[in-house]
């Protein structure tokens, strides 16, 4: 039997959420979270620090790059690196893709799992860009990962991100059809709250209805909070802004500072835009669905605002991982197509 690793990779503008499983233990899903931060690797004199940094260093087109936590540690930048809307055509996306697969292979080795004979990889794209960017992402992924993996077989496909969480309902954790799926009876809307976009799609009468994408993701909140921090003399490093947005608090001069008042207005703004566009797009059906499910890293940030407008709003379990988990389950479901 071949050794196959299945990977669901939600490569976001602010964070890469990676889930993987070996075909020898399909129910054991391993998670890796990598901040979307990339910069040119610098010399590190301390031997132990250099060893740690090597785990998050990738060579791309002849240049070594730090990525993830290592990049954040060695370059105090105030923004995530994946800030372009067409970022899948950037070196940052390629480095994050290569780095994600590298970390999966390294983790497999640390668990004493055999080197895989094949990789089954599922990627996601925002709904708005899915049709126009799918072919490029497939081609580029096969090119750079084909070179990186060498003799390891690669099977890759791309899905619309707002559809991916539905696979958590359709398939169980082994990638088998879920007998308890409620999609035979329930109509629902999936809202994926990302850094640059909020994507949405509807499942209606057992069919995925074309959704849409709003270019006002959580980055709008980050940008406004960053400006307020500048105005108030607060630290503007990315780690401080992330803490403010996710917890409503920052650490300054040894004290916890409550900054929730700086978060409310931009959150209300992006929620208002998203809800108005969805009402227009779905028309009266938005009031006929059984549930609206929020997923993505930004879901906890805007959940309360959505719940006030639509009382049938719910957060999927582990919303940050819902897209990656759905992609992984789809990858596991497709193992049967890998030649024996």
Describe it for me?
This protein is of the alpha/beta class. The chain has 3 domains: 4-180 and 320-337, ATPase, nucleotide binding domain (Nucleotidyltransferase, domain 5); 188-218 and 274-316, 2-Layer Sandwich (Nucleotidyltransferase, domain 5); 219-261, no CATH class. The protein is 38% helix and 26% strand. It has helices at 47-54, 69-73, 91-110, 127-149, 167-170, 219-232, 238-247, 260-282, 299-309, 322-333, and strands spanning 4-11, 15-22, 30-35, 38-40, 57-60, 63-67, 118-125, 153-160, 188-193, 198-204, 207-214, 249-252, 255-258, 291-295, 313-315. Strand 2 (15-22) and strand 3 form a beta hairpin. The longest helix has 23 residues, at 127-149. The protein is globular and about 50 Å long. The protein starts with a strand and ends in a 7-residue tail after the last helix.
Radius of gyration equals 20 Å
Mean pLDDT over the residues: 88
CATH superfamily of the largest domain: ATPase, nucleotide binding domain
Number of domains: 3
